[in-house]
Specification:
The chain is mainly alpha-helical. Helix content is about 45%, strand content about 5%. The chain folds into 2 domains: about 120 residues, D-Maltodextrin-Binding Protein, domain 2, CATH 3.40.190; about 100 residues, no CATH class. The radius of gyration is 20 Å and the shape is globular.
């Protein structure tokens, strides 16, 4: 944008704020406004790695759970330190002020228009780090809607595919180990014995259409544009 070769882009932070700080662009909308508390970043390991390194895999998840809790605890009190770490050139490399704009609970839409958005980035609270099957199902519905999945699929297919990728069993093992180590509390985590892996029907989408992860095809049928079933509109 600075050189004039593009007119816009879709990115994660801190690159929207970078454009504002440089005076070369403004965000049109944030994903938090499109779908509040939406799922975004994911850490993945191959099935082969997990099978060959089961203990290491659990330890990796433990480390991530500790890090995400640290980022959110005490009303984001540790975010300033995280910003300093992330600003290093071997990590994100953007200026501290640019990274801090969203990481510390504010968002600047344009110069002088800075708003309080305490939950712009959520890493642990609201069970944000838990691998809900319904999150995976939502992504699969979008892949079907926009043609990345060419053929119609049954509801069961969505469920089975989600369960091949999302591993709440690894999460539970990591969480229980952290509790046993005295590093975290049971209250930090969902009730694993009662957890189904599916969130309640999610609302608040910018399009006004609610999402029930247990009924992916019924969700797709509500759209007037895109693939659904064996039809294209």
């Amino acid at each position: 944008m600075e050189s004039g070769t593009i007119d816009g882009y879709c990115v994660g932070e801190p690159w929207n704020q970078q454009a504002v700080f440089m005076g070369i662009g403004v965000p049109v909308i944030t994903d938090h406004e499109i779908w509040p508390y939406n799922l975004e970043k994911v850490f993945g390991m191959t099935a082969g790695f997990v099978k060959a390194n089961p203990n290491t895999s659990v330890r990796i998840v433990k480390a991530m759970l500790r890090a995400t809790k640290w980022l959110d605890e005490n009303d984001n009190a540790n975010r300033a330190e995280a910003v300093k770490i992330l600003s290093r050139p071997n990590y994100v490399g953007a200026d501290e002020a640019v990274i801090a704009a969203s990481m510390t609970g504010t968002f600047e839409y344009e110069k002088g228009d800075s708003r309080e958005v305490p939950d712009f980035n959520v890493f642990f609270r609201y069970n944000a780090s838990y691998p809900y099957y319904s999150d995976a199902v939502w992504y699969l519905t979008q892949m079907r809607r926009w043609g990345q999945i060419a053929e119609p699929k049954s509801d069961d297919w969505y469920m089975e595919t989600a369960k091949q990728v999302y591993r709440p069993d690894l999460y539970r093992r990591a969480a229980e180990s952290l509790i046993a180590d005295g590093l975290m509390e049971a209250s930090d985590f969902p009730d694993f014995d009662a957890e189904t892996g599916f969130k309640p029907t999610q609302t608040g989408f910018i399009d006004g259409i609610d999402f029930d992860g247990t009924r992916p095809n019924a969700y797709l049928e509500q759209f007037s544009i895109g693939l659904k079933g064996d039809k294209q509109l």
